[in-house]
């Protein structure tokens, strides 16, 4: 797969050079748009490259943490693909076709890379968004702690990502208190993903944890990497894919960006 890597300063890197730079990080967070097959193929290549340097654990936004025993059975080779997807309740827990992700899942099984779920029930996200952490009983918090307040750059990114200032929207700017409720919900996911990445790191000493996560949770020094640092695991790195010709993420969005060839997306779309 021919691709062009650039670091945060805009300098070009080779794929091998990028993998070498990322290998020492305690966690590497791979962004995606969930419906993009080329993004998932890119993730698979990066995971394979990092796994060649050291032991890795792969965490997925697509699975709640309660399904870790099912993921372990899959990696162990105890389940067929159909059994795996049924036991993981793929049809109801994630709204995107399994074919987009199966190459990554097969890679983890073939290389015996441990897989963990990073998500929590949506009901918790809604409850914290509506009532804040203090309004949710301790027993219903899924073992999470309150999220660290997001940096303004991330807050502004999420505000614009969700439509910015527009007619009918209560919040008129990123620092408007009316935006707090939505951001609280976003931060629950960020904190959940970070919490489960930290647990995986502690359960597999010396391993690097790779997160497969929607890119909206990763950019501009906020999101998952910010929550990881607050939880005591600094130094995570964020990598993002972008198709050739698409709008590049803003400066400072990630540690490195991989520009994918446009024909890759076109070829995958054709089946």
UniProtKB/TrEMBL annotation:
It comes from the Bacteria. It holds the Pfam family Cofac_haem_bdg. Transmembrane segments: none annotated. Residues 18-228 form the Haem-binding uptake Tiki superfamily ChaN domain. This is Haem-binding uptake Tiki superfamily ChaN domain-containing protein. It comes from Ketogulonicigenium vulgare (strain WSH-001).
């Amino acid at each position: 797969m021919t691709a062009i890597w650039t670091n945060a300063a805009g300098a070009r890197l080779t794929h091998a050079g990028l993998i070498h730079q990322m290998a020492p990080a305690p966690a590497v967070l791979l962004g995606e748009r969930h419906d993009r097959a080329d993004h998932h193929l890119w993730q698979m290549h990066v995971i394979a490259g990092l796994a060649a340097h050291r032991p890795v654990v792969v965490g997925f936004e697509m699975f709640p943490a309660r399904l870790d025993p099912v993921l372990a059975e899959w990696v162990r080779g105890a389940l067929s693909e159909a059994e795996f997807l049924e036991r993981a309740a793929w049809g109801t827990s994630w709204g995107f076709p399994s074919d987009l992700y199966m190459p990554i899942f097969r890679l983890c099984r073939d290389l015996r890379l441990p897989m963990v779920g990073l998500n929590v029930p949506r009901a918790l996200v809604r409850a914290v968004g509506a009532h804040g952490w203090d309004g949710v009983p301790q027993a219903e918090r899924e073992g999470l702690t309150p999220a660290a307040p997001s940096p303004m750059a991330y807050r502004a990114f999420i505000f614009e990502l969700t439509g910015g200032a527009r007619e009918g929207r209560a919040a008129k700017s990123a620092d408007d208190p009316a935006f707090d409720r939505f951001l609280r919900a976003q931060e629950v996911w960020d904190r959940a993903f970070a919490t489960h990445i930290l647990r995986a790191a502690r359960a597999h000493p010396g391993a690097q944890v790779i997160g497969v996560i929607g890119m909206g949770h990763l950019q501009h020094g906020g999101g998952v990497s910010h929550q990881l640092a607050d939880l005591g695991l600094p130094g995570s790195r964020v990598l993002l894919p972008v198709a050739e010709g698409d709008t590049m993420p803003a400066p400072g969005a990630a540690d490195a960006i991989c520009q994918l060839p446009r024909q890759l997306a076109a070829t995958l779309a054709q089946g």
